[in-house]
Amino acid sequence: FLLQYEKALLRGYVECCSNLTWCTNPQGCDQILLKDGLGYGAACSKCSWISCFSCNFLEAHYPASCSHMSHMTCAKCNHGFCWRCLKPWRPTHKDYYNCSAMVSKAAWQEKRFQDYNERCTFHHHAREFAMSLRNRVSSISEMPKIRTLTFVLEACKVLEQARKVLAYSCVYSYYNQDTESMDIVEQQTESLELHTNAL
């Protein structure tokens, strides 16, 4: 009886802590994982399975975004469908926030907030990294025998600006309710993110 109580207590604790989760290995694993705050997941120390913490997709899918993971396309017939509810993919079924498989409006709102917050936090951290890199390159380029590294300094500045735009586009997207303008914003954001990650 005591062992069952301890397991229930542990299960309740893990489910209450937003920074903890269970390993999502479909073959079964009882390991508790610490989320890294970036949403891309980490390998389980017990079974090496990599989970995504931003969505309920069982396996990590970086660099694809979580919304791309719910839109599947058949390799044979190109039929588009939602991974979550298996219904045909339609213009009104754009992402997993609109999927009927999401249980309740409250769960939808909480998940949506978490996703945008994690994306925003990631871009802020990436911007800080670009600033730090620029400062280090700046100090190196001041040495007499080192050639000028102006192109690297300029690239760091562009990275800083792009990450700032991406972070604040998350905030804008979260609060914007106009679905027509959101399609354009999401497309532009995805394009900027793709090019920024390449840089």
Structural commentary:
The chain is mainly α. It has five helices and four strands; from the N terminus they run αββαββααα. It has a two-stranded antiparallel ribbon with strand order 1-2. The relative contact order is 0.07. The mean pLDDT is 76.
Q: Helices and strands: which structural class? A: mainly alpha
Shape: extended
The neighbouring-strand order within the major sheet is 1-2
- Global mean pLDDT: 76
Task: Jot down its keywords.
two-stranded antiparallel ribbon, extended, 5 helices, two-stranded antiparallel sheet, mainly alpha, single chain, about 200 residues
Summarize the structure.
Helix content is 52%, strand content 6%. With 199 residues, the protein is mainly alpha-helical.
Note the topology.
Elements: H1 2-16, E1 20-22, E2 32-34, H2 66-70, E3 71-73, E4 80-82, H3 105-141, H4 150-175, H5 179-198
Antiparallel strand pairs: 1-2, 3-4
